[in-house]
Amino acid sequence: MELFGLLEWLLPQGTTGNQSEYDLTMKIRNETELMAFIQMVLMPYLHNISMLIGITDAEGMIAFWWLNSNNRLSSQALPDRIAPSYLADGSSKILELQSPDRRDAFQTTLFKNGVKEVLLQPLRYHEKAFGFLCLLADSKATFSNALQQAVTRSAAAFAVGSLQVLILSLTEKYRQEIPAALPAVIMNKGIIGGDALQPVLQMVAQVAPTDATVLITGETGTGKELIAEAVHRLSPRSQQAMVKVNCAALPPNLIESELFGHEKGAFTGALQMRIGKFEQADKGTLFLDEVGELPLELQAKLLRVLQEREIERLGGAKTIRVDVRIVAATNRNLEEDVANKKFREDLYYRLFVFPIHLPPLRERKDDIPLLLQHFTGKAALRYGRNITGINPACLPALLAYGWPGNIRELENTVERAVIIATGPYINIMPPISRQVAASDMSPPLPVLTLADAERNTIIRALQQCNGRIRGPGGAAAILEIKPTTLEARMRKLGIVKEHVVK
Predict the structure, then answer these.
(1) Distance (Å, rounded) from C-alpha 467 to C-alpha 472?
(2) Of the candidates 306, 311, 312, which has an alpha carbon nearest to the alpha carbon of residue 351?
(3) Would you say 406 and 361 are in contact if contact means Cβ atoms under 8 Å apart?
(4) H/E run at residue 160
């Protein structure tokens, strides 16, 4: 809808003046054009008019002062508040300025600048004033009744023009102040990160050229596999295979076969010989994801391979030498698992040659805008959506959210936003369910002993009946026990009714 048409729809019917004023008001786009329009409407009644418009709230606080080019006043010298009485009704009024008035900063400022008479017309929207128009004269008896009637008659058109200029001014101010939308960009590099991730990337660059075993730790979804891939890509083994094994996804009875392979007939269903992951990764890198989930018996065999650099296929007797670089990852606290006998201490130290800890996303806030751009670009390409960027107004909420699912949760959230987007800029909000669940969590109540629970129950019953033990409505009746039994329990628990009844 055209802006003037929107304003006409908002204002009460019949308040936009005559057709010629309607046509002219449509063209107003700035303060200068507004002043020229007002001067043109009032030209038959007064040829040289100084004008001032104030945009204010109901309490008289000034948001904008607008002056015509011939005015001697400066907006910087005008007060930031006027008396609300100026806006009390919609009719115009004439003020004669006899002398400075210390109680009225607005009149005092005008008087000191040579103004002797003011014709003031409130500007209203739906019976509520949002500003006022002042015609200023440097002599008295300047404003005729005909002029005052013309101002009142065209007040609605002046209000429409002022509202139009106000909305356009605020729109431009907002456009200049709002941060630019984040563009959707697919970043063609393996790891996306800001300053918080730089120490990790530096460690990757240091260890990658060596054959040292690397243990990557961090919460689920922080990108441990990407770090493992970077270690392999920057190593001398980059031209060879990188074989990945998710230790948590394999059934315990198949892990040994997956890692070391098996000979034909080694077990029921072994119809042919199978090469294991260690042999597949020979001269390359083996990535053991979720290594903390390995059963204890497999941990011993893995330790032997790391020490001896040789394997035996399941059901075979031949020793096979392997040249494999190990990169392991886990979201578990292996030190605690070692203390609890859930992870072998010797294997832990064998893996803990070069540890790299990947911080969670909540500690890498500067990564979030970069990841948002990258995931938006990827999702838009995948789903064939014409998405160009992310609404920057979403950023504060996304930065404040804790992202318990880390990068994986962020990527899934972006994908949902891309799928449901109706315009070129997507709006992303953090998952509400996770926020509510986190806010609803409270520490468990302490468990009371039976004696304490009984004591509290008796005290509440005594308080409820104002210390009365016997009779209808007494504490014994409430607790459904004999009064003598209650008195015995009170003596045993040290309860004196005078102490619990105020």
Answers:
(1) 13
(2) 306
(3) yes
(4) helix 155-177
Residues 6+ apart with CB under 8 A from 213: 306, 325, 326, 327, 328, 350, 351, 353, 354
Helix (H, G, I), strand (E, B) or coil at 286: strand
* Strand, helix or coil for residue 397: helix
Please write the tens of the pLDDT for every residue from 242-280.
Answer: 999 998 888 877 888 888 888 887 777 777 888 889 999
Is residue 43's pLDDT more than 70?
yes
Rounded (5°) CA angle 286-327-277: 15
Q: Is the pTM of this model over 0.90?
A: no
- CA–CA gap between residue 426 and residue 290 (Å, rounded): 35
Residue 287: what are its φ and ψ, rounded to 5°?
A: -100, 115
The rounded distance, in Å, linking the Cα atoms of 376 and 382 is: 10
Q: Which residue has the tokens 């990658």?
A: 208
- Phi/psi at 26 (nearest 5 deg)? -60, -25
pLDDT 10s digits, 128-186: 888 999 999 888 888 989 999 999 988 888 988 898 888 888 776 655 554 566 676 66
Beta bridge partners of 425: 389
**Which stretches within 362-449 are classed as H helix?**
367-383, 395-400, 406-420, 432-440
Strand bridging mode 214-217 / 242-246: unpaired
